[in-house]
Amino acid sequence: MSPSTHPFRTLALFCRVVDNFGDIGICWRFARQLWREHGIAVTLWVDDLASFRRICPAVAPDAETQQVEGVTVRHWRDQEGVFAPGDVADIVIEFFAVDIPPGYIAAMAQCQPRPVWFNLEGLSAEEWVEGCHTLPSSHPRLPLTKHFFFPGFTDKTGGLLREADLLERRRRFQADPAAMAAFLAPFGVTAAEMASTKVSLFCYPHAPVAALFEAWQQGGEAVTCLVPEGVASETVRGFLGAAPNAGAARTVGSLSVRVLPFVAQPDYDKLLWACDLNLVRGEDSFVRAQWAGRPFVWHIYPQDENLHHVKLRAFLGRYAGGIDSLARFSLCWNGAEAAPQQDGWAALWAALRADLPQMAGQAEAWQQKMTANDDMTGNLLKFACSLRSAAG
């Protein structure tokens, strides 16, 4: 949707960083796309600028207000503040149901026309999402209505976040082995490691990384594991026998581990594109792995009472496509099932490795299916236009 086809000029996006990089990762991609592709001036309110800076080095962690790649970034320190109607954006989005400052909401109620107000929810493959997508919720005291907007995997949801040129950029990169080698070379990846099975590793601390490392070491095929600094730190430290700082590397048996610096989002996309298998976590890297067109395994954000296992099984039911090794590996990786007693992670890895060609085909087919749902940003703006039209 181009700027000439929608009435919106400004958007405020409120983000609290809970999952270190997932929340701000999604919001940052979303904000940039709104500006670059739709001409909307975005103000991104975020409480944790230090985490933000890890994925966007241009961010100044001590600035109250700054312009970064066309987006106004505001440090969201507290719930205080007095706002006037002129301070309110045309579209207001609370990410993951964060509480917008009361003063901002009061100013929203004074606007004519009222801003379009969304709660942008987390991604889930569960069936109930379709029934809740776009549902309204009236404010208990003020003349305001908020609508729930759910990203998702079907045409009855908001779709997945995707820039207009993403798939073409990915296609060109993956069609050029020299470009992939040139990208990985500054991280120390050798020609022999380029020829091995390359795995990117991004997971939460409780992932059974040590068991997987052991299986890789003792396997008959060379594996190169590329892990960002700060991920699985204790296991990586134990494997290296040294501090797991960026640039550190060691080979034991069939496994080579390289610690990478935390890279900006565009380079993380290239890392996913360059690897044969991606172990990803949370929501942002999970979605980017789907657009990478490569086999991947998801480490889902943990929830109380293991509710995340329900979400994991729901996704695998849609995605795994009868690839039993992928479903089993994913469930064990997330602690939803126990690894087999005999051969353990070696057996899980052997089965998954044998199915990587089938998984690659499934990844491409899935990507085509998700593309047919259009992209989340465009879908949200279309719905916002319908709400504005209905309001007169």
Q: Helix- and strand-based class?
A: alpha/beta
Distance between the termini: 21 Å
SSE order in H/E notation?
EHEHEEEHEHEEHHHEHEHEEHEHEHHHHH
Give the rounded overall mean pLDDT.
95
**Count of DSSP-assigned helices:** 16
The spatial strand order of the largest sheet comes to 3-4-2-1-5-6-8-7
Q: In percent, how helical is the residue content?
A: 40-55%
> Whole-number radius of gyration?
22 Å
* Shape summary: globular
Low-confidence stretches: none
Q: Proportion of β residues?
A: 15-25%
How many E-type strands?
Answer: 14
Major beta sheet summary: 8 strands, mixed
In short:
This protein is α/β, with parallel strands linked by helices and 392 residues long. Helix content is 41%, strand content 18%.
Describe what this molecule looks like in 3D:
With 392 residues, this protein is α/β, with parallel strands linked by helices. The protein is built from 16 helices and 14 strands. The protein has helices spanning 22-38, 49-55, 102-109, 128-132, 166-174, 177-184, 191-195, 209-218, 233-240, 265-274, 284-292, 307-319, 324-333, 344-354, 356-371, 376-390, and strands at residues 10-15, 41-46, 65-68, 71-75, 91-95, 116-120, 136-138, 145-149, 197-201, 223-228, 249-252, 255-260, 277-281, 296-299. An eight-stranded mixed beta sheet has the order 3-4-2-1-5-6-8-7, with helices on one face. Helix 8 crosses helix 14. The two termini are 21 Å apart. The mean pLDDT is 95.
